[in-house]
Amino acid sequence: MYNTDITLIKMIKKFYYIKRDRVVNKITYKGKTFFDKFEKIDKTLTLSVMNEHEEKKITVAHSLISDRDIVENIVFDYNGRNPERFWHRAQLMLREEGYINFTAYKTKTEGHLHLYIHKGHTALQEAYQLAKLLSAKLQQKMPVQWKMFPDPNIPRDFNILILPYEVYKKERGSSWSKHM
After folding, report:
1. 116-153 burial string, b = 16+ CB within 10 Å, else e?
2. What residues make up the domain containing 66?
3. Average pLDDT over residues 38-50
4. Is residue 7 part of a domain?
5. How far apart are CA 127 and CA 149, in angstroms?
6. 10 vs 38: which has the higher pLDDT
7. Is residue 167 part of a domain?
8. Whole-prediction pTM value?
9. Contact, 157 vs 36, CB < 8 A?
């Protein structure tokens, strides 16, 4: 059974992506060329597929953007060397901004994290702005060692994240939050 607590992520399960050993698609977007190794599967993301991912038989990714341009999570993709410091700074900044539900997950690479901010139904353009704003605020406290998702500078089918393997830390509501 897929044991990672992903119930905290409101994930789009109508379709998913599987990583292939070859380039599946070549996309030119905003003057840049992207080589896609993830193949979109237009089937429901099931528990059996997630189990294969956890067993590392396949690599599965989920989309952050629904087919109706709705985003449920803003995500920091941290690729630095000090996840504990990143978590500490990010959680303080998020609390200060009034966010009370967020979870960091470990990725396949040691020390890298995906920090999901559980925002709820958010229009795509607003999600782009929120991601940019949160990144700028955290950038004031530490050097940028992350990417933000969703990202308007990459193709829509590249606003995907590999399913998490393990919860790093989570924050669920606080009575002292100023925006409850």
Report:
1. bbbbeebebeebbebbeebbeebeeebeebbebbbbee
2. 16-172
3. 95
4. no
5. 9
6. 38
7. yes
8. 0.90
9. yes
